[in-house]
Sequence to fold (425 residues):
Amino acid sequence: MGQSKCPNCDGTLEYRADHRKFGCNSCGSFFTEEQVKKLFKGKNKSQAARPIMEDDEFCQGELYKCTVCGAEIMAEADLKIGWCFCCGGGLQKQGNLPAAYRPEGILPFEISRDAAVEIFKDNLAYGKLSPSAFSSDEVLSGLKGVYLPVWMADCNVGINVNGTGRTVKSWIYGDQLYTETRDYSVERNGEAEYFSVPSDAVGKMDRDLMAMAGNYDFTKLQRFDPSDIFRYPAEYCPVNKGEAFKCIQEKVKEDTRKTVGKSVSKYTDFIPENEDIDILGTYWNYSLVPLWLLTYTSGRKTYRFAVNGQTGKFAGDAPVSPVKLSFWALVVFVTVALLTLVITTVTGFAGSADQSGFLVRSVGTGAVLGAFAAAVVCSIAVRSVRRPHEVPEPNTYAGDAETNFTTKLDRYVRQYTTKVKCKDK
Ligand SMILES: [Zn+2]
Ligand SMILES: [Zn+2]
Fold:
């Protein structure tokens, strides 16, 4: 068969004697010889069926490259921002937008800029320790809409599952418990098509920030319109298909397993003997997702906040002002130290026989307790500012759009009944 390319990630397929199949080293897909033959007969069928894109309009934009992190930013030709929204680095013009950079789909902004500002302000209630300049109008005016790339895949799935479907019925007659078991030989063969399954491949944007704000409902995906990116700049990223495919494969296989599971749900039990769920071809494309982004630089540190442009979820850590922190630490310290002094004086805890010894003990205890309280309160306060915002949820996507079982066999094999004596009631 020579050198065959993996239809899922363009990696090289090699015969693996241990699996008796052709395997791809980059993404871990496996194909039988029969499947490989079929694949190359119908190669690029799905790609060819797609409409040819009119790219003239798309190419009116400009491609910029960050001199620091290397992010590629697509924007209108006379973009006036001189910075990269992923890292804050400088941008360099690269020329026209290559036609291959055209996204397939886009999720529109559903959260307005004003709403995003409100979300930002609300969440800063946790940021009482933040520098005052942080929530100023000047800083808030830097809140920008951006689009980030998400690589997605349409997949053709081959299903070959067989096993035993078992129904179990029990009843009591006299003092006996009867159990009747019927076994069926079950076969499910067919194909499924999955559309727009999102991968976890992301561009240069902070992965944690994306994970916190980044779950999207991809069922709302719209066809990309070039005018979209001329309103807000968009990042483009290349994809390592082999890596990205592993996450897609996992999702698709799990979903397919569920579909197969539904088709055998009439049985009490399904015991699979052979379960081949293989992705036989993948069409890669990417879509843009909306994000409101705010970058704030304090000293040497850059803080980044994000509001999901579709769901309004907020992510990011607020900066802590050393001045405010010291002030609150001092307040706590003085309060606790004074209280200790008063209490020890009133209760005579530190003893009163010897005046100077009393003062040393009392002030010493106050200082120690005060410092301890200040440390505890400040660390709690800082932690509340640096809280992880929300647990990331998985993306929603259309999933299994079409499953077509070509074979759906349920053949009766045998039946047997057992009986056991019931225990005394
Ligand atoms: Zn592969
Ligand atoms: Zn950058």
Summary: Residues 43-52 have pLDDT under 50 and may be disordered. Helices lie at 33-41, 45-48, 113-123, 137-140, 207-213, 241-263, 322-347, 355-385. The radius of gyration is 32 Å.
